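Lab notebook, bench 4. We co-purified these components, and the gel suggests they stay together. Before we commit to crystallization screens, I want a quick structural picture of the whole thing.
Request: model the full complex, all chains together.
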Amino acid sequence: MKVLDKGFVTLVDIMGDDRSAVRAARVSHGKDISTDEKDRKLINYLMEHGHLSPFEHITFTFHVKAPIFVVRQWFRHRIGMSPNEISRRYTSKNVNEFYIPDHIRIQDTKDKQSSNVYSDEQLREETLEIIEEVYKKSYEAYEKLINMGVAREMARIILPVGEYTEFYLTTNVRALMHFLDLRASSHAQWEIQQYAKALAQFFQKTCPWSYEAYLKHQYKGDILK
Amino acid sequence: MKVLDKGFVTLVDIMGDDRSAVRAARVSHGKDISTDEKDRKLINYLMEHGHLSPFEHITFTFHVKAPIFVVRQWFRHRIGMSPNEISRRYTSKNVNEFYIPDHIRIQDTKDKQSSNVYSDEQLREETLEIIEEVYKKSYEAYEKLINMGVAREMARIILPVGEYTEFYLTTNVRALMHFLDLRASSHAQWEIQQYAKALAQFFQKTCPWSYEAYLKHQYKGDILK
Amino acid sequence: MKVLDKGFVTLVDIMGDDRSAVRAARVSHGKDISTDEKDRKLINYLMEHGHLSPFEHITFTFHVKAPIFVVRQWFRHRIGMSPNEISRRYTSKNVNEFYIPDHIRIQDTKDKQSSNVYSDEQLREETLEIIEEVYKKSYEAYEKLINMGVAREMARIILPVGEYTEFYLTTNVRALMHFLDLRASSHAQWEIQQYAKALAQFFQKTCPWSYEAYLKHQYKGDILK
Amino acid sequence: MKVLDKGFVTLVDIMGDDRSAVRAARVSHGKDISTDEKDRKLINYLMEHGHLSPFEHITFTFHVKAPIFVVRQWFRHRIGMSPNEISRRYTSKNVNEFYIPDHIRIQDTKDKQSSNVYSDEQLREETLEIIEEVYKKSYEAYEKLINMGVAREMARIILPVGEYTEFYLTTNVRALMHFLDLRASSHAQWEIQQYAKALAQFFQKTCPWSYEAYLKHQYKGDILK
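Here is the predicted assembly.
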């Protein structure tokens, strides 16, 4: 699933589905049998009452490509998140891929945490020109340092946080919901919202009952509804 | 897989295998291609150098039945362990199942943390008689309280820690290895060692390369070799 | 602070107070200066918007004595909870202390997760008699097994979950709030509610602004207000 | 404590010392009394046998200033690490501070994960000139974008990972030891090694017995001895 201009989210592997949460919840009550209708009701009940531990039994592995500044926000989520990221100490692969925005946001002068989409085409062009110029210069300088024999781990200190990086991430539905609460939200930066939306789609496809119940009872954000 | 007199460990679900760790490790180095031989070597390298995060991408769900005192030791492992346990507040199901040892261990008088297997048949019989008598009396009293209308959550306070309980557990190979370090060890209580051995067998079957490399380079216990 | 008939919660050590959360939150905004009024407002803002990570910088160590069945519920909280508990493998100290309820709750026949306080004095006496009888028999049997030389780790399997145990717990305010959400709640078992209330008092005393803002904006339970 | 050219590590707050670990470990054994000699022995015993949970009762809060690329390595440590970092969405404070190395390392051509210190003065000067030029251009472009009204969260995408950032970190001795195992190691990048050494000094000063026992029995790195 394509995200931003050069990024993606791929679902690599999955364990479980709606019924895995049901099964784990039922053991608490010492019950086995279930029907579709009862399973769905139970999932609703769990979400409504905040019994979220059964959702730790559904796990995903994603392969993600995203700009460094997005990844830095992402990895603030520590609980139930197991990442392995490409290392710029070990490889120079694809080092010349940088995030180019397709729109420009201006600083909200009243609310310092907000930004607004920018409609002036001239300013958009000027901004992109500046950004692309810095990307170009940084990359050329990096290349030059590498060619001079400077260690990769040292040369990369000049690479901008708009550079794309890649990682594998294993997480579970409970951790994913917490991520969506904070990042599938208009308070989050627009770029990470796009990744959150992609994850939400995978969540919805694989666990439709849980996703529906989550949106209804638990979701604290505002862009998925 | 049967464990102790009435317990078990069942593998309910699994995500990934040896190659999941390889894949996650390779992203760090920006590499894709691999052969069986190289994958195996990489797993060895990771274990040897303590790069254990790639093993968080292999997850298991187990269904376990074990005595409460074993579960209490088990749940001291908090990292990467997602359990859902039967609740004695909600159900009286199977409340009359208790662990009966098949051997008796005597207290080591020098090392207070040790115990030794007991060979005197008379003492064994006496011990089992005492244990079974307490189990019987506790259970009868529990039944009586329930019949008198006392709340399950209150009646159960007299049930012994030898009572069997059940839980679903989702964990990953890294957390599993840490569990085996401490519990597949002669320092651990004999009963939890049996569960650790069962988990080790599932680990070996599903990730033979990782298991072999773990035993060679990382394993801190002494009973699996 | 005395809890239940023989238990307690003692505050052993503490790091930080309301201002520790403020300080950590301010670094995010690149600000230093603050007044009491602004600090208090900031704490309110953090709680209102669910920015809870600054509250991980306030840590407590508690010494707790509680029945095993309470501790089992308590330790289901894994995030930000570091416990060390007395081990019945290593010591027989105080093994004869058991929880005697001062009231009896009967099973709610409609809501199987609920119980109601019992007012019939005769039934109360009968119930306590049964409970105390099981405690007495179990303890005598334990003593006998120990005297016969049976290992402590084996003899203890007949001890009931109403037995008191002790532990040291280090936690932080964020984890504590999550604990209070679930355990300072009428849905939790009455006994653990008493421990939750004790923790809440320590929280209120040491971080009055955070506690007030927590109750106002975040608290999901119902018994602290 | 100054680290690198413009960074620092400051100890902001602390809870506990060597005796906190002792106290928590003793509860496991049901013991209270202790002498200095016995306490020290117990700490040695715990480290030798890998009983590390008692060291979770000693917590620190640090204030750290470090380049982004160091912080990215640092925050791969998720367990027992509670950070709050300055946000470039919210502030432009000190945005023009970048890491200038005082030595240059060249790529090891055999071991792709290694680098060697560079002794050729001419190449050093050329390298620093290139790095400083990129820093200068990036910062000027950032300033220009900000002056044009572009949102901070968008303008910062061109800032290099050599930029300094700040964070508050609360951690405990167990998590700190794990950090030192991997980062106070010649396998880690030289820059993060300097931060690891600073943390090690704070550890040594506040918990001299634990630090000594850690180096003797647990430490997996090679630069602290």
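The helical segments of chain C are 18-29, 36-48, 68-74, 121-147, 152-155, 173-183, 190-206, 208-217. Worth comparing against the SEC data before the next meeting. The beta strands of chain C are 2-3, 7-15, 59-67, 81-85, 104-107, 115-118, 164-172.
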